[in-house]
Design brief:
The chain is 41% helix and 13% strand. The protein is α/β, with parallel strands linked by helices. Strand 3, helix 9 and strand 4 form a beta-alpha-beta unit. It is globular.
Length: 379
């Protein structure tokens, strides 16, 4: 009985992959006989590798038992990331959003994921897919520049944001890159210092990308600093100075956004207990992009504020400079809050209307429909 119930996780990657490929690629008449056919092939060609079989059984009994395991093996293939699921896209909603907010798809594109279940995970997965496409594009660009200059290609510079949504995106992205036969070299930059919950800090995400070919640039400072001390902090020691100097090599920023009315937004760690930001606490704050606050009409600068701020690799003027380069990209995961499922529609609107420092925004159908209703009427 122990052998009969042995888990499919003991099967080799190669065998799990082959089962999934055979099972998913059949069409027409083959589909009707699909599961039995795959089970027969498994028993005949790989019977000794199947932990649930007793080789003394008849072939029919072996096939019958194996036939019921095929679905579990395909599930294993999905869990091992051999199968990539691409959620359906609400193309018409995308077109309406681009038109309503007067966005040029050559520079600002929107993906609308059209799913009812596992919404947050599907949006994160699609965001990772979009980021991977940009990474491939940048790797090709870096190779072309290096060929012209007769040098080695620069690694693709990626700035990683903090937060639960960012963690979900980066987790998917790391697996996608890890499955590539010849992945591009990366230089990973932390966009923020380590915050209270270290598991959602960018420096923690570095461990997901296991490759000696990659480079890693931490932002080794305290999480917060007085606004008037922010500029001096950049040169406080050699490691901090290096992080800010290498900021100019970031080519892609992967992040999410926070909504001011979301109690789970991590920027609240810096604002709820700092009663020295009247312009934020009087209702002007709508959201934040990696702890950079903004209101309905645009960015809120904290340069001359007497209070505290989060330490970030980029400030608003830096992001505007970043966005001005056509070879720079920002991919934003704009799904509902992963903890309470509240939508971030109100916080997304200013990014579409005023703060166009991003190039790719990925969201869900419900949020997209709310965005169509929330647009400021044109005069």
């Amino acid at each position: 009985m122990r052998e009969m119930l042995a888990g499919d996780e003991t099967l080799s990657d190669a065998l799990v992959f082959e089962v999934a490929k055979r099972w998913l690629s059949a069409t027409g008449e083959e589909q009707k006989k699909l599961t039995t056919g795959v089970a027969e092939w498994l028993v005949d060609e790989h019977g000794r590798e199947l932990p649930w079989l007793d080789l003394r059984w008849s072939r029919k009994r072996k096939v019958d038992l194996t036939r019921y395991r095929i679905y579990k093996i395909v599930r294993q293939a999905i869990e091992r990331d051999f199968v990539q699921l691409h959620p359906p896209q609400a193309v018409q909603l995308r077109e309406e959003l681009l038109q309503l907010y007067d966005l040029d798809p050559r520079r600002h594109d929107i993906d609308v994921v059209d799913v009812a279940e596992d919404l947050n995970d599907m949006v994160a997965r699609q965001t990772a897919e979009v980021a991977l496409q940009v990474i491939r594009k940048l790797a090709k660009y870096n190779a072309e520049v290096a060929a012209e200059q007769g040098t080695e290609p620069e690694p693709v510079g990626i700035g990683l944001g903090a937060g639960y949504s960012s963690l979900a995106v980066v987790s998917h992205l790391a697996k996608m890159i890890g499955s590539m036969t010849d992945p591009p070299r990366l230089r990973l930059h932390a966009l923020t210092a380590t915050i209270a919950d270290t598991k959602i800090s960018p420096v923690t995400f570095f461990s997901l990308f296991r490759s000696d070919r990659n480079e890693y640039v931490d932002l080794p400072t305290t999480a917060t600093v007085r606004c008037k001390e922010y500029e001096n902090l950049k040169t406080q020691d050699v490691k901090i100075r290096t992080a800010f100097e290498l900021r100019d090599r970031v080519q892609l920023i992967i992040t999410s956004l926070g909504a001011a009315d979301d109690e789970h937004g991590t920027i609240r760690q810096y604002l709820d207990y700092r009663q020295d930001h009247p312009e934020l606490l009087q209702g002007e704050l709508v959201g934040d992009l990696q702890y950079l606050p903004y209101g309905k009409s645009g960015a809120i600068l904290l340069n001359d504020n007497p209070g505290w701020r989060a330490v970030t690799l980029f400030d608003w003027p830096d992001l505007e400079k970043f966005a001005a380069d056509e070879n720079h990209y920002m991919v934003i995961c704009a799904a509902p809050c992963r903890r309470c499922r509240n939508y971030k529609t109100r916080a997304i609107v200013p990014l579409l209307e005023h703060l166009r420092v991003w190039t790719h925004l990925v969201t869900d159908r419900a949020t997209a429909e709310q965005l169509l209703k929330a647009a400021t009427p044109k005069a």
